[in-house]
TrEMBL record:
NCBIfam families: nramp, Nramp_1, PRK00701.1. The gene is mntH. PANTHER family: NATURAL RESISTANCE-ASSOCIATED MACROPHAGE PROTEIN 2, SOLUTE CARRIER PROTEIN FAMILY 11 MEMBER. It is found in: Cell membrane; Membrane. Belongs to the NRAMP family. GO terms for biological process: iron ion transmembrane transport. Keywords: Cell membrane, Ion transport, Membrane, Symport, Transmembrane, Transmembrane helix, Transport. This is Divalent metal cation transporter MntH. One of its GO terms (cellular component) is plasma membrane. H(+)-stimulated, divalent metal cation uptake system. It comes from Micromonospora krabiensis. HAMAP family: NRAMP (MF_00221). It is a multi-pass membrane protein. It comes from the Bacteria.
Length: 422
C-alpha cells in the first residue's frame, strides 16, 4: 500500500480569515484604529472645538480638517510599525535605546497615561453631573469602576474590547450627527471655512491648540501594540495585505473622529457665534447653551456623548499604562492596581474642588510634554529598512512625517510656554 507522507499545507491565519467570506474577512482587519480614534474625541476636544466655533464661527474649519489629516498619517505609521516589527513602540524603545534613556521614556510615558486618565475621568464626571446631578467626586468613582468593566472585556480577547470601543465611538458620532442636524448650520459658510486664514492673535493660539493637540502620545503606544497583536503575516505579500487593511482601518476610524470634531465646531458656530451666551469655553457652559438655543434634546445628546467619551477614553488610557510598563520594563501589574494608580490623581483633584475645565487644561500640559517622546521614535523607526522590511517608509512619507512631527512638537512647545507663562 502506498501512503502519502507529504502533509497538507497549513493555511495561514490570514487565509483562514479570508475563508470566512469577503465581508467578514475584511471586517476582521478593522478595529485597532477605532481604539486610537477615541483619543481624538476626548473631553478636551469637546471644549476646544466648541470654543473655536463660538468665538470665530466657521473660521477654523480648515484647522480641524488639517489636524485630522495629520492624525491619519501618524496613526498609519504607528499601525505599520507594530505590524512590520511585531513589537509595540515601548518594546522597540527598550530594545533599541540606551537603558538610561529607556527609563526616562518610561517615566514620562507613565505621567502621560495618568494625565490622560485625569482628563477623561473628569470629563465623564462632569457628564454624570450634567445628566443626573451626581457630584463630581462620586461621579469620578463611577466612571473609574465602569471603565474597569470595559477593560475587563479584554479577557474575552482583543476583538471584544475593540468592538466595545467602536460601539462607544458610534454613539458619540450619532449624538453629534443628531445635534448637527438640529443646530441648522450654514453649509455655505462651513465650506468657506476650508480656506486657510486667521483673525488676530487669539485665533492663532486657538488654532495652535487644535493642531497641537492632534496627536495623543498614549494612543501611539496603544495602536502599535494592537496592530502587533493582530493577524500574524506568513510572508511579505501577506504583510502588505494586512497593512492595506490597517490603512483602511485608520481612514475609516479617523474619518469618524474627524467628523465628530468638525460637528462640534459647526454646532457651536451655528448656535453660539455672535450671541451673548456666556461660558461656551467650558463643558458646563456648552451644555447650558445648547439647552437654551437648540433644545433639551441637544443638551442631553451632548452630555451623553461626553459621558461615553470619558468612559471610552479612560479605558484606553488605562490600557495604555499597561502597554507602557510591559514594553519599557517588561513587567506587568494587575489591572485593578493599574486602574487605581491612574484613577487616584483624578479623584484627588475632584475631591479638592479644582475647576474641571482648569484641570483639563493642566492635563494637556503634561500630554504636550510627552509628544516628542512618542513621535520622534515612530518616525525614526519607520524609516529603517532593517526594522520595517518591505513596509519601510517611502522617502516622501518620511518627509511628510518629519514635517508633521516637527509642526506638532513646535505647536505643543508654544502652547506649553503660553500655559506656563499665562
Amino acid at each position: 500500500m502506498v501512503t502519502n507522507d507529504l502533509a497538507a499545507p497549513t493555511a495561514s491565519p490570514l487565509q483562514i480569515a479570508r475563508a470566512r467570506g469577503r465581508v467578514r474577512g475584511r471586517l476582521i482587519l478593522l478595529g485597532p484604529a477605532f481604539v486610537a480614534a477615541v483619543a481624538y474625541v476626548d473631553p478636551g476636544n469637546f471644549a476646544t472645538n466648541s470654543t473655536a466655533g463660538a468665538r470665530y464661527g466657521y473660521l477654523l474649519v480648515w484647522v480641524v480638517v488639517v489636524a485630522n489629516l495629520m492624525a491619519m498619517l501618524v496613526q498609519t505609521l504607528t499601525a505599520k510599525l507594530g505590524l512590520a516589527t511585531g513589537r509595540s513602540l515601548p518594546e522597540l524603545c527598550r530594545e533599541r535605546l540606551p537603558r538610561p534613556l529607556n527609563r526616562v521614556m518610561w517615566v514620562q510615558a507613565e505621567f502621560v497615561a495618568m494625565a490622560t486618565d485625569l482628563a477623561e475621568v473628569i470629563g465623564g464626571a462632569v457628564a454624570l453631573y450634567l445628566l443626573f446631578g451626581i457630584p463630581l467626586l462620586p461621579g469620578g468613582i463611577i466612571i473609574g469602576v465602569a471603565a474597569f468593566a470595559v477593560l475587563a472585556l479584554r479577557s474575552r480577547g482583543f476583538r471584544t474590547f475593540e468592538i466595545a470601543i467602536a460601539v462607544l465611538l458610534g454613539v458619540i458620532v450619532l449624538a453629534f450627527a443628531a445635534n448637527l442636524l438640529a443646530a441648522d448650520s450654514d453649509p455655505g459658510s462651513a465650506m468657506s471655512g476650508l480656506v486657510p486664514r486667521l483673525q488676530g492673535t487669539d485665533s492663532v493660539l486657538l488654532a495652535a491648540g487644535i493642531l497641537g493637540a492632534t496627536v495623543m502620545p498614549h494612543v501611539i503606544y496603544v495602536h502599535s501594540a494592537l496592530s502587533r497583536d493582530r493577524i500574524p503575516a506568513a510572508d511579505d505579500a501577506e504583510r502588505r495585505t494586512l497593512f492595506r487593511g490597517q490603512r483602511a482601518d485608520v481612514l475609516i476610524a479617523l474619518a469618524a473622529a474627524g467628523t465628530v470634531n468638525l460637528a462640534m465646531l459647526l454646532i457651536a458656530a451655528a448656535t453660539f457665534h455672535g450671541t451673548a451666551i456666556p461660558g461656551t469655553d467650558s463643558l458646563e457652559g456648552v451644555h447650558a447653551g445648547l439647552g437654551q438655543t437648540v433644545g433639551t434634546a441637544a443638551a442631553f445628546g451632548f452630555a451623553v456623548a461626553l459621558l461615553v467619551s470619558g468612559l471610552a477614553s479612560t479605558s484606553v488610557g488605562t490600557y495604555a499604562g499597561e502597554i507602557i510598563m510591559q514594553g519599557f520594563l517588561r513587567r506587568r501589574i494587575s489591572l485593578l492596581l493599574r486602574r487605581l494608580i491612574t484613577l487616584v490623581p483624578a479623584l484627588a483633584i475632584l475631591a479638592i474642588g479644582l475647576d474641571p475645565t482648569r484641570a483639563l487644561v493642566l492635563s494637556q500640559v503634561v500630554l504636550s510634554f510627552g509628544i516628542p517622546f512618542a513621535l520622534i521614535p515612530v518616525v525614526a523607526f519607520t524609516r529603517r529598512r532593517d526594522l520595517m522590511g518591505n513596509l519601510v517608509n517611502h522617502p516622501l512619507t518620511t518627509a511628510a512625517a518629519v514635517l508633521v512631527a516637527g509642526l506638532v512638537i513646535v505647536l505643543n512647545t508654544f502652547l506649553l510656554w503660553q500655559m506656563i507663562g499665562g
